[in-house]
Amino acid sequence: MRRNLPAALALVASLALAGPGASEARNSRWGETYIPNLPVTTQGGETLRFYDDLIRDKVVVISFIFTSCPDLCPLTTARLAEVRDMLGDAVGRDIFFISLTVDPEHDTPERMKAFADAFHAEGPGWRFVTGRPEDINLINRRFGDRSAERGLSDHRNEIVIGNGATGDWTRNSALGDLEEVVRDIRSMDPKRRDETRPAGQAGGIDQVHTLSQRPGEVLFRKLCSSCHTIGVGDRAGPDLRGVTGRRDAGWLTRFITNPPKARASGDPGLAAVAAGFPGVRMPRLGLTEDDAADLVA
Questions:
Q1: pTM of the complete model
Q2: Which sign, positive or negative, has the C-alpha torsion 93, 99, 104, 109?
Q3: What is the pLDDT of residue 220?
Q4: Structural domains in the chain, sorted by start
Q5: Rounded distance, CA 109 to CA 280, Å?
Q6: Which of 54, 98, 142, 249 sits at a 20 to 30 Å CA gap from 125?
Q7: How far is residue 133 from each of residues 54, 139, 185, 227, measured CA to CA in Å?
């Protein structure tokens, strides 16, 4: 998915300017006069007003997804499920997750529920939201997503974190340092804003890994462990214990580098896995054959 860097920088700048300084959200550009209060529908079929019911007076974490996404949406959602677990009981009480579809013409509440269920996103703390295309597209545009005009492959991969009570907003990435994401979310509470990163801890998408770790181990931890375990049980995807005994290295490499092509081959084993995990498919991660070989090794 491509990014429009100038647009992204402009939007980040506007978000920064809408930061601390307003005592109430209505005094901020990113308050009730800017965020549409349009009707939306959750994965459970509940109709809500977007601003009044989902944003007002809440700390929120917003992601942009579509259920047929072949690329980063599943990985982003799996990573956010980890963030939710890290935040614990605060989710649904102090902090609320919203996953907005960028494909409202196809993402029905039923499809959104199947996608949510694949990541165990149960409970009132995480809503997957769809609605009338004209309403959802306007909401998404206000958060900087232009996929309605440019195509789904150009939808935003960042997450938006905000406080509907103060009008403070920022961006982050669920593909980066999840502890940093958690800190950004918690810092939306003014009482916790002075918390700082522990000394010596680096942020960003790449954490420090020792050279003693095998390359495949690092890749698995960064890209695969949100959806899979090895011997601990299923997550959003199947437990991979023993997979190298069931499939040869060449097949695994081909699947890892191009999952859609492998699924299109009609492989009965993949069909069985898909039936067991109906809400999600492994995305294209842009891995090379060397990357895949490291993972399989």
A1: 0.68
A2: negative
A3: 73
A4: 5-192 (3.40.30.10), 215-296 (1.10.760.10)
A5: 15
A6: 142
A7: 18, 10, 29, 30
